[in-house]
Specification:
The protein has helices at 16-29, 44-48, 53-57, 63-67, 94-100, 110-116, 135-143, 161-174, 194-204, 221-225, 233-236, 241-263, and strands at residues 3-7, 34-39, 78-79, 85-88, 124-129, 146-152, 180-187. By secondary structure, it is of the alpha/beta class. It has one domain (3-263): Rossmann fold. Strands 3-4-2-5-1-6-7 form a 7-stranded mixed β-sheet, sandwiched between helices. A hairpin with a 5-residue loop joins strand 3 (78-79) and strand 4 (85-88). The N and C termini lie close together (9 Å). Magnesium ion is lined by residues 16-17, 40, 44, 128.
């Protein structure tokens, strides 16, 4: 039975998708069977795994159809070119779900209901959430066991985190009792920038130490280039600093998943 992890932060552009795609690929390479669920109408995870243009237009089923209950979840999963890595792709159509779901009685639980049907097929399911705390993101929070919060070391990074944490508490209390934060990961770290280190120290002082992953993801041009080639960094440039950092993060996540599996 899979451990289900949502990558969340309602702040845009903090490397949620980059983390989902690259951790997913690294875990797959380590022998885990991994499904990435693209829960963002932008479809960046879908493109980052090589599905764009004609292959995107030819998709028969996507996360939209699954969340609307219009297709069986297994029928929306496609294989990727990458080892042990599957994808539930997304297109712009998913934006409509944000409105259409409001009519559903269990509007926040649609994804959970779907994922339960395919949970046994994977070791780890990673949900790449959109930058919002609306009904789609709530589906992500309800469908998962753990959260990973990517955070940039910028002066405004903490803005919105209080809101995210209070949403997590509310979801935990009302509909997903076992929800926990697996960890916060610092992304796009530029250790040469003094302000980066200072902001990191200030963020660290506001949380318990063990909430942070040891691996920090450096700002790395190869990570920026990889999505336009439709490849995770470990395939695009396995020798890069970015690939190394994501491999280390994936190892930490695998260790944490092992102890969660024992509890589930
Ligand atoms: N470590 C890194 N080094 C350099 N560029 C990075 C790094 N991580 C992410 N990026 C780039 O930053 C941009 C934002 O990353 P990404 O799309 O993963 O963020 P996101 O949180 O998923 O955004 P959104 O909120 O729009 O979904 C992308 O262009 C990505 O290639
Ligand atoms: Mg994204």
């Amino acid at each position: 039975m899979a451990v289900i992890i949502s990558i969340v932060n309602q702040k845009g552009g903090v490397a949620k998708t980059t983390t989902a795609v690259n951790v997913g690929a690294a875990l797959g390479n380590m022998g885990k069977r991994v499904l990435i669920v693209d829960l963002d109408p932008q479809g960046n995870a879908t493109a980052g795994l090589g599905i764009s243009g004609a292959s995107k237009r030819s998709l028969e089923n996507t996360t939209y159809d699954v969340i609307m209950g219009e297709t069986r979840p297994a029928d929306a999963v496609v294989s990727t070119k990458f080892k042990n890595l599957w994808l539930m792709p997304s297109t712009q159509a998913l934006a409509e779900a944000e409105i259409k779901l409001l009519r559903f009685e269990n509007k926040n639980m649609q994804l959970k209901k779907a994922i339960l049907q395919i949970k046994d097929n994977y070791d780890i399911i990673i949900i790449d959430c959109l930058p919002s705390l609306g009904v789609l993101a709530l589906n992500g929070l309800n469908a998962c066991d753990r959260l990973i919060i990517p955070m940039q070391c910028e002066p405004y990074s903490l803005e919105g985190v209080a809101e995210l944490i209070s949403t997590v508490k509310r979801v935990k209390k009302s509909s997903n009792r076992n929800l926990q934060i697996m960890g916060i990961v610092f992304t796009m770290v530029d250790s040469k920038l003094k302000v980066n280190r200072e902001v990191m120290m200030s963020i660290k002082s506001k949380f318990p130490d063990d909430i942070f992953f040891n691996a920090e993801i450096p700002r790395n041009v190869k990570i920026t280039e990889a999505p336009s080639h439709g490849e995770p960094i470990m395939y695009y440039d396995p020798a890069s600093k970015g690939a190394d950092a994501y491999a280390r993060l994936a190892k930490e996540i695998a260790r944490k998943c092992k102890s969660i599996e024992e509890m589930l």
